[in-house]
Specification:
The chain has 245 residues and is of the alpha/beta class. Helix content is 27%, strand content 24%. The protein has 6 helices and 11 strands. The protein has helices at residues 20-26, 29-37, 78-92, 102-110, 196-206, 228-242; strands at residues 10-14, 44-48, 63-66, 96-100, 114-117, 123-131, 147-154, 156-160, 166-170, 178-182, 185-188. The strands form 2 sheets. It has a 9-stranded mixed β-sheet with strand order 2-1-3-4-11-10-9-6-7, with helices on both faces. A two-stranded antiparallel sheet has the order 5-8. The longest helix has 15 residues, at 78-92. The two termini are 30 Å apart.
Length: 245
């Protein structure tokens, strides 16, 4: 269990690390989320489940964020399956929960949805996200623009929704870019924590692996663009989790 700071309200569940070249320039996943949330180091605790660190009792934190990962949910690694069970318990215990990329897919898996490789291949770059009718009145996505840009980098996707889940947003590539799994539990396939520079780092790193299946807009770093609404979602989640205004 992490050493709980007296004012820590958010737990970041780290499920891996970013690409070495990106980490050398921009830090790692927890740094990006902490910055996006607008919280100081002492206000955020981190548990790296992929390296065997232990999770706290469910419900100990007001907010829980699950990061992306180089792992795949379909590998059903022991730490991942344990984290999936813990996430369900955390939702039941009253924590607000937000999964991003791998975390989004892991929540879908935990609640009974289907996750696997996307049949059209990788989605990479700054993509157009369309708000869906289910976002009306949603605690996180209500009031989203009809379309907004967001950064994406993934091979696996949620292919079918868990029972009771609601799709909130989609892209041309992926029909489930944002999902509400429970009244205070969401998944985002896109990356609100990515800056333009981080997205460019991923595009450059993936250049040798491109197979023609990624959207045309992702194929040059010059096409990476700011994503102001997507980035604001982390502050919205913070407000939900800690009842801030």
């Amino acid at each position: 269990m992490p050493q709980r700071a007296s004012d820590a309200s958010v737990l970041i569940v780290q499920t891996g690390s970013t690409l070495p070249a990106v980490r050398a320039r921009h830090g790692d996943f927890p740094d990006w989320f902490r910055h996006g949330l607008g919280l100081r180091r002492g206000e955020v605790d981190v548990v790296d489940v992929a390296t065997g660190e232990n999770l706290p009792a469910p419900g100990q934190y007001a907010g829980v964020i699950i990061t992306g990962s180089p792992a795949m949910v379909t590998e059903q690694l022991d730490w991942s399956e344990h984290t999936a069970q813990w996430l369900r318990a955390s939702v039941d215990a009253g924590s607000a929960v937000l999964g991003v990329c791998y975390g989004h897919q892991l929540l879908a898996h935990a609640f009974g949805g289907e996750v696997d490789y996307h049949p059209a291949g990788r989605e990479l770059g700054t993509v157009a996200i369309e708000r869906l009718p289910g976002a009306a009145g949603d605690g996180l996505l209500d009031g989203a623009p009809a379309w907004f840009p967001a950064h994406a980098s993934h091979q696996q996707s949620v292919l079918s929704l868990p029972p009771g889940a609601v799709a909130l947003a989609r892209s041309a590539h992926d029909p489930f870019h944002a999902i509400r799994f429970a009244p205070r539990a969401w998944g985002l396939q896109f990356h609100p924590e990515f800056s333009v520079e981080i997205m460019r780092g991923y595009v450059d790193a993936r250049r040798p692996a491109r197979n023609g299946n990624c959207p045309q807009a992702c194929c040059a770093t010059r096409d990476c663009a700011p994503t102001p609404f997507a980035r604001r979602l982390l502050r919205r989640f913070r407000a939900i989790a800690v009842n801030a205004t």
